[in-house]
Amino acid sequence: MRYIHLVLIVALMAGACKKELTGPGPEGSILNYEIPEVPVTQDYTVGAFYTSFGGWNANIKEVPVAGKYAMPAGVIPPEVMAKHIDYAVKGGVDYFVFSFRSPNRDATNYRSDSTLIRGFQHANGEGKMQFAVAYNFSTGTYGGISAGNPIEKDKARLTQFFEDFHRIVPLLTSAGYQQVDGKPILYILNAQTLFSDNNKAIYDTLRSKFKEWGVTPYLVGMQDRWTPPARYQIRFDHCVDAIIHQSFSSQNNNWDRFYLLPQVMDQNWQYSKKYFADTYAADYIPNITPAHTWLIGTPTSTNPEYSRKDSGALFTKLCNVAKLNASEKTRLIMIDSWNNWNEDTQLEPAVSYGELYLNIVRKQFKK
User: Which UniProt keywords apply (predicted)?
Assistant: First the structure.
């Protein structure tokens, strides 16, 4: 009997409230606050991740102003790279970041990466812009299968690990390489997957070897998106000079985050920046994305679409959030990406939107 009464009460409540069930909106959220505009009194240093791809996905709607291109085995038409450099400089992008994978563990991609970097260097003969590299701890490289497989227990793998960084030295010391406080900046992707019994000891040894090779790099470790700053303390604590997250504004499948994305990112970055500085003695580098779509890779996706239909309004807000949370010392900003057309995250000009996003970057980060 009590069960029947409960069902009737719930049914009556549902009927009485039927017209009122519209649900809460983002406007009522505690996170719905106004983010102050940050004036640019001094230039920020802006980098952009450069993507290598072999072909052109048929689901890509946008068309580059430079024309459709591909980079089989890292070979890019010189005229395309020259246009990319000119556009980037015009838009206030200071340097491209190119992937650099292990010749010991990923020889094919190592050759492709090396070829693309040389293509940039040849096209940049006049020294119009800078470049940097991002060493990739991809799965199966040096991260191991799990935390139970630390790199110290495999002497051959540990030796190859240091050999890889030795191969990067000629790039770090070459003309046109991006510096931070007089140090060449070196990104390390998937840095949280370097499984070691003592990560600080590994990085201390790496820094000692760099010193022997005549280089003092500014190391930037990347951790996966939307992860709290304390998650990888044993991987980052006093290991790297700065930390960067994967872009929060790309591959976002969470509607709660999407509705108030600038505010959610602002809160996360404020906390992360302070935590990294206080706990790891590391700077923080904000990482933003001009747009993103799931539909190129997954046409049936129902995830949030960070589209270009707002004429760059959301990207402009994210630029401002990045300024709010950039390091006062280095003033570094990263954009992901320059040309990842497969996810529609590209900053590169397209026929439909022209140089819109370049203009936003220049206005937001340069005096």
Answer: Transferase
For residue 340, give the nearest of 303, 292, 287 by alpha carbon. 292
What is the average pLDDT across 84-106?
95
pLDDT for 185 beyond 70: yes
Calculate mean pLDDT across residues 339-350. 97
Q: Is residue 254 a contact partner of residue 212, using CB atoms and an 8 Å limit?
A: no
Range of the domain at 220: 42-365
Q: Is residue 27 part of a domain?
A: no
Q: Are 343 and 54 in contact (CB under 8 A)?
A: no
DSSP for 67-106?
-----GGG---HHHHHHHHHHHHHTT--EEEEEE--TTT-
* Angle formed at CA 319 by CA 315 and CA 321, multiple of 5 degrees: 115
Say which residue the tokens 């206030």 belong to.
92
Are the CB atoms for 351 and 63 separated by under 8 Å? yes
Distance CA 8, CA 19 (A): 19
